[in-house]
Amino acid sequence: MVEKSKTIDDKYSILLPTYNEVENLPIIVWLIVKYLEESDVPFEIIIIDDGSPDGTQDIAKKLQKLYGDDKILLKPREKKLGLGTAYIHGIKHATGNFIIIMDADLSHHPQAIPEMIKEQKKCDFDIVSGTRYSGGGGVYGWDFKRKLISRGANFLTQILLRPGVSDLTGSFRLYKKDVLQKLIDACVSKGYVFQMEMIVRARQFNYTIGEVPISFVDRVYGESKLGGSEIIQFAKGLLYLFATA
Ligand SMILES: Nc1nc2c(ncn2[C@@H]2O[C@H](COP(=O)(O)OP(=O)(O)O)[C@@H](O)[C@H]2O)c(=O)[nH]1
Ligand SMILES: [Mg+2]
């Protein structure tokens, strides 16, 4: 539970990028609303849908009617333009002073959000990262290959860049808005490696980072967009960071 606090001005903008998440969107939105209302924190959900052919936007419109257009903001784009730019697009419309980024496919459970908020307040952290690789965190439903890729990517990055954060490739995080904006401006990579570059750059800028253990559950509905080309891109991005950071 997040304490009813003195910082009444804090507001949390949750960015939900979606591509073909028609089954997942109503559930994730319901869960976010439930946990944040229980915690009594001001928030808004910004849905960035990239022209999903499965009707995700129709569902998003219904959810907006249901919860109100102050709680659900729809900022769609014409076609699939990638996750990195979806965040940049979403941030432009955020009215909160904190941004939470998470996947819409139910891999990230909204119950961790109040914990991230609490952790942030503890030391006024610039960033709080959900971690699958320390404390009670974990990964469920991935096959061996996917686990190996994720672990391997984290391991390699730890060795090469020593960022001091246990989960580098995860994408369930809370940022101060101005911090996220600066990091996005500084980051050069696109795709899977983007999350890792954000943390590496955060270290360069001496931002403070807290961690909250999360359980990551593989998506039940729909398909992952991680493919072989993403893995190659990740390796290239890592080497680039190693050479320049
Ligand atoms: N707006 C937008 N969202 C995307 C795009 N690609 C993936 N997503 C969303 O980003 C989140 C993570 O994608 P996902 O395929 O689950 O990646 P994985 O968890 O690494 O397999 C999900 O909510 C997707 O719907 C994109 O090009 N545009
Ligand atoms: Mg996923």
How do you describe this structure in short?
This protein is of the alpha/beta class and 245 residues long.
Topology of this structure?
Blueprint: E1 12-18, H1 25-39, E2 43-49, H2 56-67, E3 72-74, H3 83-92, E4 98-101, H4 112-123, E5 127-131, E6 138-140, H5 144-161, E7 173-176, H6 177-186, H7 194-204, E8 209-213, E9 215-217, H8 228-244
Parallel strand pairs: 1-2, 1-4, 2-3, 5-8, 6-9
Antiparallel strand pairs: 4-7, 5-7
Helix pairs in contact: 5-8, 7-8
Bound molecules: guanosine-5'-diphosphate (GDP) and magnesium ion (MG).
What does this structure look like?
The protein has a single domain, classed as Spore Coat Polysaccharide Biosynthesis Protein SpsA, Chain A (Alpha-Beta Complex), CATH 3.90.550.10. 43% of the residues lie in helices and 17% in strands. α1 links the parallel β1 and β2 (43-49). It contains eight helices and nine strands. The protein has 245 residues and is of the alpha/beta class. α5 (144-161) runs parallel beside α8 and α7 packs parallel to α8. The strands form two sheets. Strands 3-2-1-4-7-5-8 form a seven-stranded mixed β-sheet, sandwiched between helices. A two-stranded parallel ribbon has the order 6-9. The longest helix is centred in the middle third of the chain and has 18 residues, at 144-161. The chain starts with 11 loop residues before the first strand and ends with a helix. The protein has helices at 25-39, 56-67, 83-92, 112-123, 144-161, 177-186, 194-204, 228-244; strands spanning 12-18, 43-49, 72-74, 98-101, 127-131, 138-140, 173-176, 209-213, 215-217. Guanosine-5'-diphosphate is lined by residues 17-19, 21, 48-50, 80-83, 86, 103-105, 107, 219, 224-226. Guanosine-5'-diphosphate binds next to β1, β2 and α3.
